[in-house]
Amino acid sequence: MQRLESQNEAAIDGCVSWAQGYISGFNYTDNEKKGIIIEYGALIIWLIDYSGANPTKYYYEALQEVIDQHAR
User: Fold this and answer.
1) Cα separation of 12 and 4, whole Å?
2) Would you put residue 48 in left (φ > 0), alpha (ψ -120 to 50) or beta?
3) Which of 1, 5, 13, 41 is deepest in the core (most CB within 10 A)?
4) Which backbone phi and psi does 54 adopt, to 5 degrees?
5) Domain map of the chain by residue range?
6) Could you read off the pLDDT tens digit of each residue along the chain, which spans 72 residues?
């Protein structure tokens, strides 16, 4: 998750785009928790904060945490 902290705009955009696809895929396949919605800017901030607080975690673990926190 170092790419998020690099402040390289292209790297951040790539990570967030991948995250949006991951979340979209989850929304498509999960019948119980559909509707995970998070704005682009909020997702960037959340991922940067999470990666700073959890430097040993993998990127997909951060995204799973986003899903768990925003599940309806």
Assistant:
1) 5
2) alpha
3) 1
4) -135, 65
5) 2-70
6) 555 666 678 887 888 899 999 998 988 887 776 678 888 889 988 888 888 899 899 988 999 999 888 876
